[in-house]
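Changelog-linked ticket: zinc ion example.
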Amino acid sequence: MGARKRDSDRRIGRRALLVGGAAAAVGSAFLARDELSELYWRLPGVRKPRVEGAVDYRGARWVSASEANFRWADRPDDYGIDMIVVHVTQGGLESAVKAFQDPGHQAAAHYIVGKDGRVTQMIRELDVAYHAGNRGYNERSVGIEHEGFVDRPQDFTDVMYEASARLAAGICRRYGIPVDREHIVGHVEVPGTDHTDPGEHWDWDRYMKLVAAAHTATA
Ligand SMILES: [Zn+2]
């Protein structure tokens, strides 16, 4: 934030010089402070420098989603992150990866956890993924997909629960998100959604205990 402030102050100075006159300078400074500091960093293409292939979760495989399925952003500075949304892919891991790479799919989550417990990251946590079907929830959350089908409880393996819990605990720690069901929700709980995932077979008690344990372990 410090760097941004200095940057927008510099812009104010330049603009004030161009406009000239004390009154105009005050007016444009007010506008600039209001508009630039709030909006400048939300313009398309303005984003934090990032390293190609870098991941937010150590050990995750990086496969980039199509740019059509997320919005470049600068979280948590432009949008605070205070939620995790849990999903189920309704298909296999690689078909979900392909869907998120497809610009026509219009949706993607940050992560996919496989039945084998492996984590694939497709969108940086900095960016707004289109996964919740609700703009406000997309902007404030990280989406975690799980390989499988909502009506096949056997798809939700032990290693999947454990890996997803470690991933979720790390996200909670990075952004100071409380480990509770107010902040870790299912897609079905997002207002306005017609999705039912993760479904009745997702064991929330078990998952939340694992997230809490992993969160404590990394304290
Ligand atoms: Zn979903």
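Closing comment: Example verified and attached. Residues 2-42 form one domain. Helices lie at 2-19, 22-39, 93-101, 135-140, 158-175, 204-217.
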